[in-house]
Design brief:
about 325 residues, Rossmann fold, DNA polymerase, domain 1, seven-stranded mixed β-sheet, 7 strands, about 40% helix, methyltransferase
Length: about 325
């Protein structure tokens, strides 16, 4: 299947990167290279693009899309949490811009055997972003305790019926292992009142999100590496992050704010004595949202939010 993905907030992201023709830019979630192809067009012979992705299919698609720019493009198969190490390995210590598009790609959602979608009946419960990983969604569904399932569905899916969903999963797997997306979706449907299902969107959406986040450590990776990525930026360099749900957006917003104002002194102190210095400024006081026309053309863009931070080393 051809790797297809419509890049969300494409022009807004490219504009906010403030691309220098001779700069070094990192796309930490390369995907099908939608954003990267626009970045590389703006680079001269001294510019460089480094694309990172853990998905083998994405690497293949991006390599093909960017083949005409091979002299200025380096593609690395890894998780963006390894960005600093991967850049050091190729002799790069500072960059002018970083991009993260944290959404699941259309290819991943539309390829049944990847197991990301709740709209398929017979797809395997997989959900791995990196298929070199051994743990799958099936392992989580069948091996996690009821309390662990409840925790992730409550915290990562923000589903008010998390307790009931976890209970029904455990009861069902006691009879036979849960192996497909369709089986899991059927169990979730039984766990949620019909009157809620008729008004609240697809009943399995939140649970599938929760399992995917847990499996791929998505929030942990983001919160643990954002500070490090900001440190990689040159003076006036920018990091642009596109999120697709409130949990990611909250992490980005709070870490950006902390890097703009890291002071931990009590408010009553007349001057700062903690010695913590700002690393830059938040460019987006409110997130940039897709236009109405983009949401009409690409419904998956509806929940997207773009936040931008600019590095200032001498603040």
């Amino acid at each position: 299947m051809e790797f297809k993905h419509t890049s969300v907030l494409l022009h807004e992201t490219i504009d906010n990167l403030n691309i220098r023709p001779d700069g070094i830019y990192v796309d930490g979630t390369l995907g099908g290279a939608g954003h990267s192809s626009e970045i590389v067009k703006r680079l001269n012979e001294n510019g460089r693009l480094i694309g990172i992705d853990q998905d083998e299919d994405a690497i293949a698609a991006a390599s093909e899309r960017l083949k005409d720019y091979s002299d200025k493009v380096t593609i690395i198969r890894s998780n963006y949490c390894n960005m600093k190490e991967e850049l050091n390995r190729i002799g790069v210590t500072k960059v002018n811009g970083i991009l993260l598009d944290l959404g699941v790609s259309s290819f991943q959602l539309d390829t049944p055997e990847r197991g990301f979608t709740y709209r398929e009946e017979d797809a395997p419960l997989d959900m791995r972003m990196d298929q070199r990983q051994t743990l799958t969604a099936k392992d989580i569904v069948n091996d996690y305790s009821e309390s662990e399932l409840y925790r992730i569905i409550r915290d990562y899916g923000e589903d008010r019926f998390a307790k009931n969903i976890a209970k029904h999963i455990v009861a069902a797997r006691a009879k036979k292992p849960i192996e497909t997306t369709g089986e899991l979706t059927a169990i979730i449907r039984v766990s949620i009142p019909m009157k809620v299902q008729s008004t609240g969107g697809h009943p399995a959406k939140r649970t599938f999100q929760a399992i995917r986040i847990e499996l791929n450590r998505e929030l942990e990776v983001l919160s643990d590496t954002l500070d490090e990525m900001i440190d990689l930026l040159e003076e006036d360099g920018r990091i642009c992050i596109i999120t697709f749900h409130s949990l990611e957006d909250r992490i980005v917003k709070n870490i950006f704010r902390k890097n703009e104002n890291p002071c931990t002194c009590p408010k009553e102190f007349p001057v700062c004595v903690c010695g913590k210095k700002p690393k830059g400024k938040v460019i987006t006081r409110k997130p940039i949202l897709p236009t109405k026309s983009e949401m009409e053309e690409n419904p998956r863009a509806k929940s997207a939010k773009l936040r931008v931070f600019e590095r200032h080393i001498n603040d």
